[in-house]
Design a protein that fits this description.
Helix 6 (214-227) packs across helix 7 and helix 7 packs parallel to helix 8 (276-288). This protein has 16 helices and 23 strands. The protein is an alpha/beta fold and 545 residues long.
Length: 545
């Protein structure tokens, strides 16, 4: 672990080398501004990372009317307010390319777990599920306008979920879409993109998205091409059929002529950990053929999903009522049980399943418990406990599964095509969004990368990590003016201590904010400073382009 003094010294050395080599980024600016001028805010004395992978430089940042107005060494501007960033890193506000934090914004627009990580922009509508689909009943434009009216703490961009589109047109049945239905779905995607969606997503392990054919997915993704937007996919499989799922994802993007973003890339289950080289080979081969492909990942070894995902997709055909009816069928239930137990064996047993959320008050004792241990205390078979929980909560039970490899995680984070996400919800240690026992990725992912994987394990450099958290995800979502610290850009900024930044939240105690994030600015307004939050949000809805 490096000390703050070592980090500052390294940053100064990097600054000197960059100065000798000449400007290599958008930060080109005079060393000193000769004339004084009034600015709203001056961030002084920090080691600045621009988000493009350039090494740190000792530069001040001036902000006026919500935008970066000057960048240079020892700026002489007169500022109404200053932030002393000596010994700290100044970087673009982080962009979470795969977030579910929009789900709680209407309950609590403070977005505490977002802002306190240094995240200034979230991209939601992931995993095939979006709160708008472009239909008259759920239009995309008014949805985005409603988010703006919330005055959220963070900026919000949204993809259209192709699973939600299918559900709105075809329903929850496992059948091909008719020609008329497919035309209707394509028109909903086109309308959503026209009204501000920044891409399209799938969740092919979930229903009804799992029932979409490859040809259907290609047709729904074709409207992305003309706009230069990405298809983000939670693939059809992330364990035994992982390579087939990678091939399908590439085929869909190539067939549609659009960009590809593989969501939360993982190799799930110990017997699949050695497939990562083949995954990289396939993705790198697609890039060599001309496909614009990338992927993202959160820095934890457990995933989060719904408890129903442990049960076979075919058993969920037709929705929750049909699922329970099959469990009641003596001729079908044994097959469901066998396939579910096979999935449990893949991830290492019922104790690798932790319950995160339930709806029924009577089931609250299960939250935060490993399912195997919880079933043992009840003296009931774990499969039966899982079914009972699903029944009493109308199928809505959250879980995390511990099934991934640390060496693979490090390689995924460090890969040139990789970037950082949370795949997490938004919550706070107080108020209406403190509920259940959520995956800590929603409150600790970005600080964890900086603390554990940059400072401690040195899996990637600080400059590269910041690029994977800012400019690269902003570009994937076609947010042209975000993710880079440069004159004229909106002032989304995070100031952090590279020597102390870290996640504190755990699976047992998730409601703990990270350390080392000193200040966060959203559109030029201070959202967080030394632990204190702004009373009003300054985020806004962002549209591509």
């Amino acid at each position: 672990m490096i000390t703050r003094r070592q980090f500052v010294a390294a940053g100064a050395a990097a600054s000197a080398s960059v100065a000798m080599a000449g400007p290599s980024s958008v930060l080109a600016a005079p060393a000193v501004h000769a004339r004084r001028r009034d600015v709203d805010l001056l961030i002084r004395g920090g080691q600045l990372l621009d988000g493009l992978g350039t090494e740190a430089r000792a530069l001040d940042v001036a902000i006026t009317a919500g935008r970066v107005s000057a960048i240079g060494a020892r700026l002489s501007d007169a500022a109404r307010e200053e932030i002393d960033a000596r010994g700290l890193v100044v970087a673009p506000g982080f962009v979470d390319i795969h977030s579910h934090a929009d789900g709680s914004l209407y309950d609590d627009p403070r977005a505490e777990s977002v802002i306190r990580q240094g995240i200034t922009t979230i991209v939601c509508g992931a995993d095939g599920s979006s709160r708008a689909v472009g239909s008259p009943a759920r239009p995309f434009g008014p949805y985005l306008e409603s988010l703006d009216r919330l005055r959220p703490a963070c900026n919000v961009a949204a993809m259209v979920g192709l699973g939600s589109v299918r559900g709105a047109v075809v329903g929850n049945d496992d059948r091909p879409a008719t020609a008329d239905e497919l035309r209707t779905m394509v028109s909903l995607v086109e309308r959503s993109l026209a009204e501000g969606a920044c891409g399209a997503s799938t969740g092919l392990e979930y229903t009804p998205g799992a029932f979409a054919s490859r040809d259907e997915l290609i047709a729904l993704c074709r409207p992305l091409r003309a706009r230069g937007l990405a298809y983000a996919t939670h693939m059809r499989n992330e364990d035994d059929r992982l390579l087939d799922a990678i091939d399908e994802s590439i085929a869909v993007a190539e067939g549609a002529g659009c960009r590809l973003q593989v969501s939360h890339l993982k190799t799930q289950g110990p017997r699949n950990w050695d497939k990562l080289d083949q995954v990289f080979t396939r993705l790198e081969g697609a890039k060599a053929r001309g496909l614009d492909v990338a992927f993202d990942r959160y820095p934890y070894l457990a995933y989060a999903t719904g408890l129903t995902s442990l049960f076979p997709v075919w058993s969920r055909d037709g929705g929750t009522a049909a699922f329970f009816a099959r469990l009641d069928d003596a001729a079908v239930r044994p097959r469901i049980r066998d396939e579910t137990l096979a999935k449990i064996a893949l991830i290492g047993g019922w104790d690798n399943v932790q319950i995160t959320s339930v709806k029924a008050v009577t089931d609250r004792p299960a939250e935060g418990k490993r399912l195997g241990q919880y079933a043992s205390t009840l003296g009931i078979d774990p499969f039966e406990v899982a079914v009972t929980l699903l029944r009493s909560n109308d199928g809505d039970v959250g879980m995390v599964g511990f099934a991934m490899s640390e060496p693979n995680l490090e390689r995924i984070l460090a890969h040139p095509l990789g970037m950082v996400c949370t795949d997490g919800g938004g919550f706070a240690i107080d108020g209406p969004t403190r509920r259940g026992s959520p995956h800590p990725r929603g409150i600790g992912s970005f600080p964890r990368v900086l603390g554990r994987y940059v400072r401690e394990r040195r899996a990637l450099t600080l400059a590269d990590a910041v690029a994977k958290m800012s400019a690269r995800p902003a570009a994937r979502a076609a947010l042209a003016d975000r993710g880079v610290l440069a004159v004229g850009r909106p002032a989304d900024v995070v100031v952090f201590d590279a020597a102390t930044v870290d996640d504190i939240a755990t699976f047992a105690q998730p409601f703990q904010y990270p350390t080392g994030i000193r200040a966060v600015l959203v559109n030029g307004m201070i959202a967080l400073r030394d632990g204190e939050r702004a009373r009003e949000g300054s985020g806004r809805v962002l549209r591509p382009g």
